[in-house]
Write a structure and sequence with these properties.
CATH class of the largest domain: Alpha Beta
Number of helices: 14
Structural class: alpha/beta
Number of domains: 2
Order of helices and strands: HEHHEHEHEHEHEEEHHHHHEEHEEEH
Length: 411
């Protein structure tokens, strides 16, 4: 005889997820998907995904993968295939970062996986990590999910989104394990100057904290901005991890290839490296076929240079955004000097009447443009939104016409 169904409680998700947010692919993005299913055409500017905007991965990288498919059917070493790791070492050496070998390089399924692995190998419950505000929200989420506590240092629009080393020093406690740097920055587009980075390196040396340098946009800089690899400044006593990959500079997001390089005082980091190697082994290895594109990418022609120079598509799209914001009575902008985003500010006249979440929802529902609210990047203010600079200028003109249509009713 079939028993009656008992009243069972719902299966609850982990309480740790209550502190995790990723609005870039969150409720607004889901709502945009629903609108698309109903037949509306949405201009989605919430994600920096070059392939969706007509950017192609260099052909030589695709050919390298195809030619090596026969060697990509088995698991590889947990740190990655040797040619890929050696190519990363050569890039580091060409940048003046010496004493790095393939043993200090980890290849992962994108930088996202390596952020998670490196924090898991470092943190004990309650340990603190200093994270920029605004940040790329994966950093905050990964800290929380690995038992840590994010503590935010301000990169304020009034200071061109540059970190304040004095504030970073003041935030360090005996529980602080690491400082996160995102340079060039997502979402603000700030590129950190040498003096600021040197001061942060000095703080790390004095306080024995690890520096986690997210440099995925390393070659994506504009005008006279200079990208300075943090590892070149990490002297005695400073352990730093550098994160980069194929997704952005090489327009290969779907390949899911990133790398993490231990630099600075490597001997002090041996136990940390062994811990991360253990975690890497538990997931066996990262995607093998796309690792064969790394050597070709790093050793070949760097086509990103043409895209970020005057006349290049990324440069022209960025310039279009700068000009449209300058011509709008409703918006302002600190010109992005790197990466592929603009962090746009709503005019102060909207204070108290229109915040970033409300604006983003209204823009999506009424004018079918999807942007990421600024507060989803862990800011204390609610008057910014982020768009990607990947669309062509014609599309961007359409976007800003629609933005002005929404804002004129609130002005």
């Amino acid at each position: 005889m079939k028993k009656g169904r008992r009243n069972l409680d719902p299966i609850a998700a982990s309480t740790a997820l209550g502190e995790v947010k990723y609005e870039i692919r969150g409720q607004l993005a889901n709502h945009a998907h629903e609108l698309e299913k109903r037949g509306y055409e949405i201009i989605s500017l919430n994600i920096g995904n070059p392939g969706l905007f007509g950017f192609r991965t260099p052909e030589t990288m695709r050919l390298a993968m195809i030619e090596n498919l026969g060697q990509a059917e088995a698991y590889c070493h947990q740190k990655g295939i040797f040619p890929a790791r050696e190519a990363v070492v050569m890039q580091q050496q060409n940048r003046g970062i010496h004493h790095v070998s393939a043993e200090e390089v980890f290849i992962g399924n994108g930088v996202s996986e390596l952020i998670d692995l490196s924090l898991r190998a470092l943190l004990n419950p309650g340990d603190e990590v200093l994270v920029p505000s605004p940040d790329y929200p994966l950093w905050s989420a990964a800290v929380v999910l690995n038992g840590g506590v994010p503590r935010y240092y301000d990169c304020l629009p009034d200071k061109e989104f540059m970190p304040d080393p004095a504030q970073i020093r003041d935030l360090i406690t005996d529980r602080t394990r690491a400082i996160v740097l995102i340079n060039p920055n997502n979402p603000s587009g700030a590129v950190y100057d040498r003096a600021t980075l040197e001061q942060i390196a000095d703080i790390a040396a004095e306080t024995d904290v690890v520096v986690l340098a997210d440099e995925i946009y390393d070659q994506m800089v504009y005008d006279d901005a200079e990208f300075i690899p943090f590892a070149t400044l990490a002297g005695d006593g400073v352990v730093c991890l550098t994160y980069s990959g194929l997704s952005k500079v090489y327009r290969a997001c779907g390949y899911r290839v990133g790398w993490c390089v231990f630099g600075g005082d490597i001997e002090r980091a041996r136990d940390y490296i062994h811990g991360m190697e253990l975690l890497a082994a538990l997931r066996l290895c990262s995607n093998v076929p796309s690792q064969w594109a790394v050597q070709t990418a790093l050793g070949g022609f760097q086509s990103i240079g043409e895209l970020v120079q005057p006349g290049g598509r990324l440069y022209q799209s960025r310039q279009c955004i700068i000009e449209r914001v300058a011509g709008s009575p409703y918006l302002s902008l600190v010109a992005p000097m790197g990466a592929m985003y603009a962090f746009v500010r709503l005019h102060k006249r909207f204070d108290g009447r229109l915040d970033d979440q409300q604006f983003a929802l209204e823009l999506l529902e009424k004018r079918h443009v999807l942007v990421a609210p600024g507060s989803s990047f862990n800011t204390t203010y609610t008057d910014h939104f982020r768009i990607t600079t990947l669309p062509n200028p014609d599309t961007l003109h359409t976007v800003f016409d629609r933005i002005d249509d929404v804002l004129v009713h609130h002005a």
